[in-house]
Amino acid sequence: MVSAPDPGPSQLVRPYALTRGRTAPTRDYPLEALVRTHLPVLDDSGLSPEERSIVDLCRQSRSVAEVAALVRIPLGVARILIGDLVDRGVVSVHVQTESDSAPDATLLERVLSGLRKL
């Protein structure tokens, strides 16, 4: 009789182990918030493997959702770990506000004036 090979130890780590039992982030970042690090290569002795992956990914701006997907961790865990990294000054997060996306009123008036002249 042929038996299935032993799959070995499981690579699954429970989310609560990654967050040290925390279930809510210190800051609630939206999915589209951009995470980035401007620091050179860090001494990663204080970083977990997941945090190190986040830092490596965020050498380019990445959304919170993209970080979670690429590191293959649940979104809630990603938010907690990103918040921890922000608290330590390792990454920064840019959250778009309404003033960031709202066009300048004077520009709109100039465009409207130009359209009227046509």
Describe the fold and architecture:
- It comes from Agromyces intestinalis.
- Pfam families: DUF742.
- InterPro entries: DUF742.
- The protein is mainly alpha-helical and 118 residues long.
- The protein has a single domain, classed as Arc Repressor Mutant, subunit A (Orthogonal Bundle), CATH 1.10.10.
- Helices cover 43% and strands 7% of the residues.
- It has 6 helices and 3 strands, in the order H-E-H-E-H-H-E-H-H.
- The protein has helices at 15-18, 49-57, 64-71, 75-87, 98-101, 105-117; strands spanning 34-36, 62-63, 92-94.
- The chain has a 3-stranded antiparallel β-sheet.
- Helix 3 (64-71) crosses helix 4 (75-87).
- The protein is elongated, with a radius of gyration of 21 Å.
- The relative contact order is 0.18.
- Mean pLDDT is 76; it is low at 2-10.
Strand-helix topology:
Blueprint (H helix, E strand, L loop, with lengths): L14 H4 L15 E3 L12 H9 L4 E2 H8 L3 H13 L4 E3 L3 H4 L3 H13 L1
Antiparallel strand pairs: 1-2, 1-3
Helix fraction, binned, reads 40-55%
Name given to the CATH architecture = Orthogonal Bundle
Mean pLDDT: 76
Q: How many helical elements?
A: 6
Task: Classify the fold: give the CATH topology.
Answer: Arc Repressor Mutant, subunit A
Give the spatial strand order of the biggest sheet. Answer: 2-1-3
Overall number of structural domains = 1
Please indicate the percent range of residues in DSSP E strands (runs of 2 or more). 5-15%
Sheet with the most strands, sense and barrel status: 3 strands, antiparallel
CATH class: Mainly Alpha
What letter string, H or E per element, gives the SSE order? HEHEHHEHH
Structural class: mainly alpha
Cα gyration radius (Å)? 21 Å
- Strand elements, count: 3
- CA distance, first residue to last residue: 86 Å
* Approximate shape: elongated
